[in-house]
Amino acid sequence: MKILLINLFLFLFANPVFAQDNAITKLNNAYKNINDVSGNFIQTSYIKDLDKTQKFKGKFFIKADRIRWQYEGQFPQIIYLNKETLIVYDKIRKQAIKSRFSEEKYGQLPLALLSRMANIEKDFEITEKSEDSLILIPKTKMGNVKRIEIIIYEEDFPIKSLKITDNASNTVKIDFYSVKINVNLKDSIFKFVPKKDDTVLKY
């Protein structure tokens, strides 16, 4: 997370066009001392062909290159992402699916883009900007992701929302709230430990 923020600032600051951007200043000031992040989110997914919108909510935890993303409500799931290892645990079915995380899964797992933005200059082109938003276009194929919009505001964690649009014009918007930084998250939060009656499948 710390590398993500530093790289983002350096790339934009080095370009005179962005030098005075309030968005960049907010990112730099807020992120330069972040080591870990936790909070809540609301995810709004829109499927264009079905004209259908679904909303999910839950909690998230990020520390270095590890992410824990847990959905609450009617279909509770916990997603563990550690570099190239992905585990999706279904609490109702008591079933975990373990697989290798690859480029093609970015469209299905928007949360992973938080870590991908550590290489923003290498992976994205900034095609539009405003005082509080950045539009990123992947330079190479990243699953079915077409573009990413970041909305920024003045808080300890300055990313207010991410909106991912795919090649079929489907969208996933993630709004963050009640975010806390540098609470010294325990490593155990990011480790999946199956219970006796859990089933673990590997793909």
TrEMBL record:
Question: What's the name of the protein?
Answer: Outer membrane protein LolA
| Domain of life the protein comes from | Bacteria
Signal peptide bounds: 1-19
What InterPro entries does the database record attribute to this sequence? LolA/LolB/LppX, OM_lipoprot_carrier_LolA-like
Q: Which residues cross the membrane?
A: none
On whether Cell division is a keyword of this UniProt record, the answer is no
UniProt keywords, alphabetically: Signal
